[in-house]
Design brief:
Elements: E1 10-11, H1 13-38, H2 49-73, E2 75-79, E3 93-98, E4 124-128, E5 140-148, E6 152-156, E7 159-162, E8 165-166, E9 169-178, E10 183-193, E11 196-203, E12 210-215, E13 220-224, H3 237-240, E14 245-246, E15 250-260, H4 288-299
Antiparallel strand pairs: 1-2, 2-3, 3-15, 4-5, 4-15, 5-13, 6-7, 6-12, 7-8, 9-10, 10-11, 13-14
Length: 313
């Protein structure tokens, strides 16, 4: 498995901060200009320079405050540097994370307002890695929730079995992925859990051993990477004995790709705007056979893809 850093989502909060700040400042400067254009010329009046300076400072301060509130409670931007979530997330994807879905955190606290945790099985979440030692820097990871509190989780060749029932899946056939270091051969599958379907990839020749059983503790969820054999996730933590993600460590749900780049540094326009909370999207280099099989699998979605729950469904 890859190390934790490979699955890290690097914060790009500056982008959101700057956008909100710029919006407020532009509006603040535009308002007097509009007022001046509509004002009767007889009422024009010279404004002292220090008044203008104070106005600009106040507008800038409001912009910074608004952007900080947005970033901490509503939405935050992240960059994906590695391939642990292929094929769903590509390296160099820039994503938005919805921080309202599970209840916004009060600034400088772990208290959530209107909390709706835990997330549902199958959802993509960003969370702070909860098992870093004191000498390690804070890391934010992105993974897929696969089991919730009370569940018993096992894996056979990377395929999850929840409470004794294997998560329904549909094989799409052979597919090569580029993990940023080269092309790898493997098999693409479509998994169904609850109302969510998503793509997973299994590297050719990877281990077929059985893992678990693991019991998900109260107040936690267990997470896996979609690049199932190349992800440092719940299976690898706690000296490979497995561990979950506490609810308090979850920052939000991944919503969409707002920008992406290819290996040459050019904007990957086909990735911009991809809805990561909706139906899965095949990689651009998928063969006609994989595309046909994908459409067939979606049309034959299992009627009851929910595992029997331990304490939550």
């Amino acid at each position: 498995m890859l190390d934790v850093a490979d699955a890290k989502a690097s914060s790009e909060s500056f982008t959101v901060i700057f956008a909100a700040w710029a919006f407020v400042v532009v509006v603040a400067w535009a308002a007097p200009a509009v007022d001046l254009a509509l004002l009767d010329k007889k009422r024009w009046k010279r404004v002292p320079l220090w008044h203008v300076f104070l106005y600009w400072c106040a507008a800038s301060a409001v912009g910074v405050l608004l952007s900080w509130v947005l970033r901490t409670t509503v939405i935050e931007a992240y960059r994906i540097p590695g391939g642990s979530m292929l094929p769903t997330l590509q390296a160099r994807d820039h994503i938005f994370v919805d921080k309202i879905s599970y209840g916004p955190l009060l600034p400088f606290s772990a208290i959530r307002l209107f909390s709706s945790l835990p997330p549902a099985r199958g959802e993509l979440v960003v969370f702070e890695y909860p098992y870093a030692s004191l000498d390690q820097r804070r890391q934010d990871l992105v993974k897929r929730v696969i089991a919730v509190e009370g569940d018993t989780l096992e894996l056979q060749a990377g395929r999850p079995i929840i409470n004794g029932r294997r998560v329904p899946s549909c094989s799409l056939g052979a597919h090569e992925l580029d993990d940023g270091e080269g092309r790898l051969s493997g098999e693409l599958e479509l998994e169904f859990i609850g109302s969510i379907s998503y793509l997973v990839w299994f590297e050719q020749g990877a281990s077929t051993e059985r893992e678990g059983p693991y019991r998900v503790a109260p107040g936690e969820v267990w997470v896996l990477g979609d690049n199932r054999h190349n992800s440092s996730d719940s299976r690898a933590w706690n000296s490979r004995r497995g561990a979950g993600v506490p609810h308090d460590a979850i920052k939000g749900r991944v919503s969409s790709v707002w920008l992406s780049f290819d290996g040459g540094g050019r904007v990957a326009w086909d990735r911009v705007g991809v809805d990561l909370a909706g139906e899965p999207r095949l990689p651009e280099n998928s063969s006609p056979q994989v595309v046909a099989r994908f459409e067939e699998c979606l049309s034959q979605r299992p009627a009851h893809p929910n595992p029997q729950a331990g304490t939550s469904d």
